[in-house]
Amino acid sequence: MLNLIIDALAAGRVTEEVPGPRAGWAAAAVGRFDLASSAPEALRAAIELCPAEAIAVERSGGKAVAVIDDGRCVQCGLCAEGDAAAFKNVHEEPAMGRSAASLRRRFPLEGFEGASLGPDFALDAHDRVSREGARLAEVVLKRFRRSLHVRHLDAGGCNGCDWELNQLQAPQYDVQRFGVDFVASPRHADVLLVTGVMTRNLELALVRTLDAMPRPRLVVAMGACAISGGVFGTSYASRGGADRVVAVDGYLGGCPPRPWAMIRALRMVLE
Amino acid sequence: MTEAARKEADRLVGRAPDDRRALKGARAYALALEELAPTVGRALAASWRFGSLVADQPRPGEVRLDYVFVAPGVRVPVVLGLSVPPAGVPSIALACPAASWAEREVSDLFGVTFSGSPDPRPLVHHEDWPEGLFPLRAGVNPPLPVERVSGQYPFRHVEGEGVMELRVGPIHAGIIEPGHFRFTAVGETVLGLEVRMFYVHRGVERLAQGRVPAAALAIAERVSGTASVAHSVAAARAMEAALRIEVPAAHALVRSLLLELERLYNHAGDLGNLCAGTALSVALAEGLIIKERLLAMNQALSGSRYLRNLVGLGGVRRAPSSADLDSALTGATAALESVERLANGIFGSATNLERLSGTGLLSPEHVRALGVVGVVARASGVRTDSRVDLAFPTPADSEIYGTLKPATETGADVAARAQVRLAEARESLRLCQGIVTRLADTDPAPPGISDRTGGEGLGWAEGPRGEILTFVRLEAGRVARLRVRSPSRMNWPAIEHAIPGNIVPDFPLINKSFNLSYAGCDL
Ligand code: SF4
Ligand code: SF4
Questions:
Q1: ipTM of this predicted complex?
Q2: Which of B145, B300, B517 sits opposite A28 (nearest CB)?
Q3: What domain range includes position B78?
Q4: Which of A199, B44, B465, B522 is the most exposed place for a label (fewest CB within 10 A)?
């Protein structure tokens, strides 16, 4: 026991401005994919391979557009490889927004010159957590009097999103420093954070959990599953995204979204 | 030795393997319906372990049942195959309790009825599922969402003076997955526990049907978040067996590296997480720190904190550079040093150790009867590890794992499970070192390919929680049937036997020591 405490003291401060190794962070991370080629064969192959049915070609006003739905995309990268390389991973950050529709991006297919690097790709990841975290703390201070109580509910995912949420409590992130706390009872919660696809066997549990929460309250869908069903989509066993069953105030894409993106998404819905 | 064991298996079943059956990666025998029970009886007497029950409909109108066993020394899964009309199959669950959930699942999804079953209750479907609707049967496409009916699930019921019933879940207090636990207790002492699962049943197997291999692998990767590599490797091996694809050495080695890194971050995280069950918060925080470092390292190596998006058909989709491999090794080595210090704290504190010792006992008899796998089995003194029980499809892996001695403990309690995890974390690092050295002088090669588009195969992988067995049937380049048997599926029923006699507040601790995946079980 004593040794543990001595070790802990010796470890010093591990809470990071940005977690993880800095070198290679941005380059290696997968986020959002932009159209890179309008070649029909590549697009066809990408649509066939996409496990989440996140890619579509639509016609609007006689023009063809490729649609990529960041609310479905599980960032597998299959549409950016080999013969199917119609897309390219250019944004490190996953998508977030206040409506599921806002996560759908369109790329005109005629005369398309290829994707340029998005502005957020060039951002230095180094100061991201501290900056976003500070903004979150500000909002929490203003709207929720310094503390935001979050109740988590897994509606039927692979558990990847849940583990990432759990990591928010790792000393490197220490989400409590921003005034965010995970609570056991929905009666104490301001925010319901949903991960996972809406399974048939949990619909009732989700509705009841929300009913138990006092108002004002917010619902945030985190991860491709909670937004659209992700790779699990809609089936005999599931309804797709959480918003098929309850009203959702904010969406964060990713499979799973990384912890810093979760911090950012919490801020977004509060603003 | 393997040859002798295979001949012995032939003798036990009373015939040569079925050469009309195109199933690869297994030794498959064809059985008549009435031969099933006696053959299973002899198999259990010869210490065969029940692995999986695969129901499939290669032809409409009939259901083929494959009973998959792991037999000592045979080094490939043994399959006893039946072609039956979907009714009146004799249940083997009385002789082989390990098969009970599997039979119940097949009844729910395919409508096969098992006669003489000790527990014919539904499993996957909850009480509001319409009767007679079997969602995995060929041609069944109910309008969505499937209607709800009213019904009640017949829980086991215990009565007596002072007996209380405690119902917990499906939604729990922390950031964990949903499942329902029903305790009966007298005072603080638990008499019995009933576990009810399948809240996170997503229909994974059905969703994979009709997908091309790459897409199906991405789905398999999402069966259970912290076993992404293991599930995708098991599915890839099944497909490669089916299509007779040879995986080049360099690719097989990178996969093994990923599997060991996955084990390492899981075991490190689990050791820390255990301390949430004993309120040892300094160690809990330490565990989270170590796990976070390992996840960040995974991302630097693969782009994904959960090592996703690398395993592909025929190998890996991208080869990590040697610089990437070196820094992963450095990171893993540093993490293990921290794990050692953490373990000193966990086992060195008398008050903490007191909570772990003698808590959550699971007897080796229960382990064998229920076909328990992985850390939980090994901590009860049952030496089962698919990296030793089964042969690797690639020789390069066989060499690396030739020196592996599965860690076992005989304590059968929470402490023993923690000890096994510690020993395995050390072993994983040692294996990683061997793999990286070996990779340095292995020629890079493109992934293996094949021009076949159909076939059947069984694949396996030893994930952080234990053995995964995956069956795949491909037709015209698409998945016609994916069947996943996760370690958690075998181990969940066993937790019911590790709880009685303990106090209710120790349940979270015991549950953490099992660290089972709900998603992996429920599919
Ligand atoms: S990266 Fe996203 S859009 Fe591309 S194939 Fe994967 S899931 Fe589909
Ligand atoms: S979004 Fe991805 S990581 Fe999250 S629960 Fe779904 S499959 Fe798992």
A1: 0.91
A2: B300
A3: 2-115
A4: B44
